[in-house]
Amino acid sequence: MNNHEYKKYAQQKVSPSPMGKNLFFAFLIGGLICTLGQALLDLFSFWGFEKKICFTLTSITLVFLSALATGIGKYDDLAKYAGAGTLVPITGFANAVVSPAIEFKDEGFVMGVGANMFKIAGPVIAYGVSASIVGGIITYVISIL
Amino acid sequence: MSKKKGSTVFLENKPRILETASIAGQKESEGPLGCYFDCVITDGRFNEKSWEKAESKMQRQAVGILLEKTKKANSDIDFIFGGDLLNQCVGTSFGLLDYSIPFFGLYGACSTFCEGLCLSAMAVDGGFAHNVIAVTSSHFCSSERQFRFPLEYGGQRTPSAQWTVTASGAAMVCADEGNFAITAITPGKIVDKGIKDANNMGAAMAPAAVDTLIKHFTDRQIDENYYDLVITGDLGVVGSSIVSEQLENAGLVLGNRYTDCGKEIFDIEKQDVHAGGSGCGCCASVFSGYIFKKMQEGNLNKVLVCATGALMSTTSTFQGDSIPGVAHAVAVERI
Predict the structure, then answer these.
(1) Would the CB atoms of B154 and A3 count as touching at under 8 Å?
(2) What is the pLDDT of residues A95-142, one digit of tens each?
(3) Does the pLDDT at position B1 exceed 80?
(4) Any idea what the Cα angle at residue A76 is, between residues A71 and A80, rounded to 5°?
(5) From the list A13, A22, A99, which residue is nearest B153 (CB)?
(6) Subunit contact B154:A99, Cβ cutoff 8 A
(7) Over the Cα atoms of chain A, what is R_g?
(8) ipTM of the assembly?
(9) Are the beta carbons of A124 and A93 closer than 8 angstroms?
(10) Is the pLDDT of residue B2 over 80?
(11) Which of A91, B41, B292, B311 is most enclosed, with most CB atoms within 10 A?
């Protein structure tokens, strides 16, 4: 059996991820997080905040809740079922920063927390910022044409 | 006359396994083999400041239990062959520091326990040592942070992913004490079939196990009924089914006589471990805790233990390399 054939053979031995269940829970829990976000947005505007401020407050609150859930060790329990449902919303990003920060505090605040807290989120930030710069340039070029 | 035939070394002087010691974490103690471990740590940190220190303490304690059981002093031990999964094997070096016993540090990934047994047996058989200890450990938390993600990171595991066992196992190999001899060993070669998925290490390691097992049976000229049990290290559900099938294709139908430590240590259905256990501590604790006790009770007389290792690092994985495997077989028989 050559390497290619072995890879195919080994793949057959692995039971596939339960797609239906994963999709359902991702939709349900991801949807609930988004609904919570909407509720917070409505609440802040009900309290009379300016629309732009309401968006910022909603993000801050969700990030705080996610960081808190990560800190008390509950976020990963939820993510086990939710998958992309907890990964895609802003809560996933907060978890990706807080979890290495907790993990690497054994190595100290500089070389541990400082050096590692963006280990997972770093690439998203780097390429997110890069993409927004490219997008900005394209928008600018179109606007002056 | 050479002691080696083919790939197998025949140990004519019959070095013995005098005693074993095992220590396991809470999750492992809740598994089907929970009652066989000598000591259980309920707190993953083991009252230490870091997971790495907890792993070192676990290994230190395993050796401590072994010395106590065998009533031997540190000065009676000629060498320790030890290793773990952490970078530069710091779990072992800090763990064994206080014993002041000449130390050989090994890295064979999860095959380290059998690698240690092979070298211990050869050192004793060759007359270079009288008492030798082979010890390894792994800790779920120290391995996760080194090889995968932070513990609190929210991710989903694939069905083929395995759970690193929190455990340590140690065995004392002696020249002339004990009822169980290491009769033959088959050190394995590195086998790479091109699997790149770090979440499917069972499939990456299985070809190495097949290679070593076939060589062992061929070199010893024995059939599939010779051993009461053939047990691989940590192939889990996926890898062990590949081994079973590939051995059958090669004419070795082991059936119920074959199993895998990674499959046995956890209740696969109930403990949410996906494809089973893995790590240096998996084979070490299952052999030291369960198998050897079953041998002492008289339920097993001839056992072939074949620990398997995935020889990759996070660097090689990120650079797109495949995962080479290795497997070492050790035959333990009542004399």
Answers:
(1) no
(2) 999 999 999 999 999 999 999 999 999 998 999 999 999 999 999 999
(3) no
(4) 170
(5) A99
(6) yes
(7) 20
(8) 0.89
(9) yes
(10) no
(11) A91
* Closest Cβ opposite residue A86 in set B150, B152, B154: B154
Contacting A with CB below 8 Å, chain B residues are: 49-52, 145, 149-160, 193-195, 200, 203, 206-207, 238, 241-242
Domains belonging to chain B, first-starting first, are 4-174 (3.40.47.40), 180-334 (3.40.47.40)
Which structure tokens are listed for A67?
């960081």
The dihedral sign for the CA sequence A80, A81, A83, A89: negative
Partner residue facing A103 (CB), from B145, B159, B207: B145
- Extract the tokens encoding B329: 């077989």
Measured CA distances, B98 to B55, B73, B117, B274, B319 (Å):
15, 13, 22, 38, 38
DSSP category for residue A34: H
Q: What's the average model confidence in pLDDT over B92-101?
A: 97
Where would I find the H helices in chain B? 26-29, 51-70, 90-96, 112-125, 140-147, 201-220, 236-249, 261-264, 280-285, 292-297, 314-318
Q: What are phi and psi of B105, to 5 degrees?
A: -85, 130
The pLDDT value recorded for residue A145 is 84
Flag whether pLDDT at B47 surpasses 80.
yes
